[in-house]
Every structure is written in structure tokens, then in C-alpha cells.
């Protein structure tokens, strides 16, 4: 059986492999938080001069540049920074910029250029920018498709909603189509997702959907059978900016090793949408079926407290031994009915306080699709941009 395609690897704008030349500066994501689009790693590198460039050597078969543009319209002319992207000296194919003509609202995580089907091996990406104070150019992240045999550590991987390690364990989860991947969403209160990973941190990246409830909702997540942590699912304001990628929650940094995250949707309005998970320090391939043992991850070399599942396993063994000592016949019945214990999922059972809905939301719902029998809802289409040069 052939292996699945390796997961996309994210290289942040702060990656040590990137060489910036000219006048570049770094700015935190808080400066852009009012605009649509999630900023990877919490910062972007910006340029406002006509002599900025960068070089990024990589190993893989595809690469893209995600960032941000500031656009203005004067008369019939749309203005923004100019840039050119090259891989191994070859100029990347340009696509018309008519997609900018309909809006001047800034957006984060724009696809500024990309190429695919590169030969396997090392490559060099270069970027040349001509920007200004009025029309700056921003670099956020480089998504790269690595080689299948790559074994080196990677900073962060993209785990799609259809990845083998993402398990939809309760509730109804529907699939919404996009041009490159498929996300999953649920409006079932109590719907639950389980994800096993070998890494140090997880970011849940979501999207807005058309024809869905627009009020705010809530959810809970738990790591390694720990206490549930609440998070908000923002609604879509009527007349607000177009839906785009956004991070619903980011876990604390965890010790390197095998972990499990359990996410539960509480409702009551906007759906819980999974576009993808950004996982620091994870592998480029799924783990596949996982069974946790008593050797759970620990901090500073000290044995960790056993998880709830482990405590159940220990209690079962000890109880069975005592039962054997006192009642031989009872042991025979116990062994006959005993089933092999595997990793299971118990959805969160929220308290009354956790189930209390958020404050009333006054925005009106979007109109239904023209076909009342339609069961699949489409993600808000996002433009795909490529290189522009003058």
C-alpha cells in the first residue's frame, strides 16, 4: 500500500532559514487582528521600501507565499506593492490581479505566489519587493510540500480535517467543499472530535460558512484527559467582513511526545468548523491507530500522573486480581466477558453553567440556499493570488 501524501509544512516568517535583505521589520499579529485571516505564528515581516528582498532555501515539491497587501483605489486605478517570486531563478507564473478590483479592505493570509510539481530535491525561493509607506508588503508563512522520505524535524505541519488521525467520534459532522481541501463542521450540540498527535502545540483553524447560524457559540477542549478548557466560536456579523481563516484556540506548549486532544461543541448557534490543525513538531505522516500505555509523557523527566484511561486500566487489573482471590467462579465469568481495552473517547458532559448560551445575538441570519433540499454548504470562496510585477 502506498503512503499518503506528506502533510504540508509551515515555515513561519521568523524561520532561521530565511535571509532578509534590505529594510524589513517585524510586527506582531495584534496590529492586524481587526482584519480577516489568521496570522501564522503571531507576526509578519513587512517592507515599505523599493529595495527589499529575501531568500529561502527549502527541500520539497511545492511552495507558496502567504502574506498581506494594503490596497488603495485612485480613480480607475488599483494600487498596491509590486513583487516578483522566483524558484531556482525561474519567474513564477503570473495571474491577473483583477481580483483586487472589488475591494480595498486589507486581508491577512493572502496567497501571493505559489508553484507546484517541482523536482524532488533542494530549491531556492527568492522574493523581490517594491513597496511604500502607503502600500507595504507583508510576509507571513511559507507552506511547503516536503519529500516523502523526509525524516528531519519540521517546525509545524498542516493536518487537514480529513486526515486519518482526526476522528469524529460523536455527533453529525458534515463536509463542506473548497477548491483545495475539505473542511468539516457540526451544529450538533455535544459533537466531539478526537485527535492524537506527537508534537508540542495545536492550533484549531476555522472558517466561516454561508447559510449557517450566525450567532456566537462555545466549545471545550481537553488535553491528555485533563480538565476541559472553554473557547469561543465567534458569529458572523451581518454586513461584516467576508468569512476567512481564524484560530478558535491554541493549546499551551506541551512536552514533546504523544498527546491526545478532545474537542466538544456546545452550541448554540454558529457551527464548529475545522479547516485544519496547525501542529508544532508533528510528523509529516499520520500516526495511524494509537494505543496509549502507562508510559505517558512527563515533564522534566519525572513520571507523569496516569491519565483517566490509565487509571481505569490499573483499577480493572487490581480489581480483577482481588476478585480472583475471593471468588474463583466470579473470575471465570469476568474473563469470559472482558474485552480488550482500547483508547476510547468520552465526550465532555458540560455542567449547567457550561451549557448556558452566550448573550443574545441580534444579527440576522443569512438567507437559505435557493434549493431547499440542499444539504451541503459551501465555504466562502477566497481568491487565490499569484505573483504580480510591473
From TrEMBL:
Lineage: superkingdom: Eukaryota
Region of interest (Disordered), residue spans: 352-390
Transmembrane segments: 312-335
Biased composition (Polar residues): 363-376
The entry's keywords: Membrane, Transmembrane, Transmembrane helix
Protein name, entry field: Transmembrane protein
Organism encoding this protein: Coprinopsis marcescibilis (Agaric fungus)
Lineage, uppermost ranks: Eukaryota, Fungi, Dikarya, Basidiomycota, Agaricomycotina
